[in-house]
Each structure stands twice: as C-alpha cells, then as structure tokens.
Write a structure and sequence with these properties.
Largest sheet: none
Number of strands: 0
Helix content: over 70%
Strand content: under 5%
Structural class: mainly alpha
Number of domains: 2
Order of helices and strands: HHHHHHHHH
CATH architecture of the largest domain: Orthogonal Bundle
Shape: globular
CATH topology of the largest domain: MetI-like fold
CATH class of the largest domain: Mainly Alpha
Length: 242
C-alpha cells in the first residue's frame, strides 16, 4: 500500500512530481496532432484533386506522393523530412539571401510540417474515395446552371464529401494523436510520450509512468471516438440507411 502511495506521489505538481510535465506534454500532443492534421487535410484535398484530375502530370504526381509516403516507415520518413528538409530549406533561403547563417528554423514547426506531409498521403485516399461517392449528376446539374467551381465545391461537393469521409477522417485523427509521438525521435518537443519517458528514466518507475502515458493516449482516443461518433450521427441525419 505504501509503495502505491509513493508512486502516485510522483504525479505531484511542480517540484513535488512530474504531473505538470505530463499534463503539458498531453496538451502539446493535442497541439501537434491538430496542427499536423489540419495541414494533412489541406494536402489531402490537393492530393485528391490531383489524383482525380484529367491532367496526366497532376495524376502522376498524386500517385507518386501517396505511393512513396505509404510505402516507407513513418519513423524513417519523419527523420528524412525533419533533418533533410530542414537543411535544404535553410540552404534555399540562404541562396535567396533572405536569411543569414545564424538563422534557425523552428523545430516544432518543421516537425509538425513533416507529420502533416505524412498524414496528407493517407487523407488523400480518404478524400478521393469520398469525392467519388458524391453523385456526379448533382455536380453536372450545378455546372449546367452556371455555378462557378468554388460555389459548386462549397455548396454541393464539400458538405457531402465530408459526410462520406467522416469514418476515415476519424481513423486518421486517431493515428495523428499517436503519430505525434514520432516527434520524440527528433527531440523537437517534449510531448506526452517524451515527458513520460523522461519521468520514467529519472525515477526508474518505468511500468508506472509508461502506464500513465498509455492511459493519457487512451483517454484522448476515447474522447476523439465519441466526438466523431456524434459528428457522424449529425451528418447522417435524414439519410436513410440501407
């Protein structure tokens, strides 16, 4: 009993324990997940548009993007994009004379961009399938009425596409919350896994802190699943089930 009490005392706030580090790590995990997911969604829209385009080069570019990203291990991609991408971007900015040698890119932004790039490939396929599920006749009718592309997209394609894509979007979001831990391999930020790992190393209470970390990810996943469940129910109101 005393050992249990001493273990939970390690979750104290401030100098009393590692509770604040874990809470701030969980908040940072959500920030990383949201920012990378938002970037991945935008890239997914562009990728889906490219793969559905009648332009041969755009279609091939979309194919290369999704094939490469989905074929390589995510940790390897993260390391390549973080280190190689960071150095190449800095070299390009130096060549253009926009920065000097002392300039350093924001490591957090670079890591989030790398994660967003990875998630964008998976979101490309989710959104492509959702777009194909929207009846073509509705878009053709809107075009016949003279609706410009962006109006057709905003009023007809996007709302229906999101309804079809919600299950897949929910799965990718759950992956995004877990993939946020990939940032720990770059040392760019102390998210939940990194915070738990540092606490475990400092106290040698590996089982306890890794269990607490797992519990944190589990809570995020359960809340996320509930939110997407209610979002799907709302999006499918008035739709007859087969």
């Amino acid at each position: 009993m005393a050992s249990d009490v001493s273990l939970f005392s390690l979750l104290g706030w401030g100098n009393a324990g590692y509770g604040d580090e874990l809470v701030f790590g969980a908040i940072l995990t959500l920030q990383i997940s949201f920012c990378s997911y938002l970037l991945g969604f935008c890239l997914g829209l562009l990728g889906a548009g490219a793969k559905l385009s009648s332009n041969r080069w755009l279609h091939r570019l979309g194919d290369v993007y999704t094939t490469l990203v989905r074929s390589l291990p995510e940790v390897l991609l993260m390391l390549i994009l973080f280190y190689t991408g960071q150095s190449q971007l800095k070299a390009m900015l130096l060549a253009l004379g926009l920065v000097d040698e002392t300039f350093e890119l924001n490591a957090f932004a670079v890591a989030v961009s790398a994660l967003g790039f990875i998630q964008g490939a998976y979101l490309t396929e989710v959104l492509r399938g959702a777009i194909l599920s929207v009846p073509k006749g509705q878009m053709e009718a809107a075009r016949a009425y003279g609706m410009p592309f962006w109006l057709r997209f905003r009023r007809i394609l996007f709302p229906q596409m999101i309804r079809y894509a919600l299950p897949g979007l929910g799965n990718i979001w759950l992956n995004a919350t877990k993939d946020s831990s990939l940032i720990s391999v770059t040392g760019a930020a102390a998210e939940l896994l990194k915070s738990g790992s540092m606490a475990a190393s400092a106290t040698k209470a590996y089982t306890f802190f890794y269990s607490v970390t797992a519990g944190g990810f589990l809570v995020v996943s359960i809340v996320s699943m509930l939110l997407f469940y209610y979002a799907e129910r709302r999006a499918n109101r008035g739709v007859r089930r087969a």
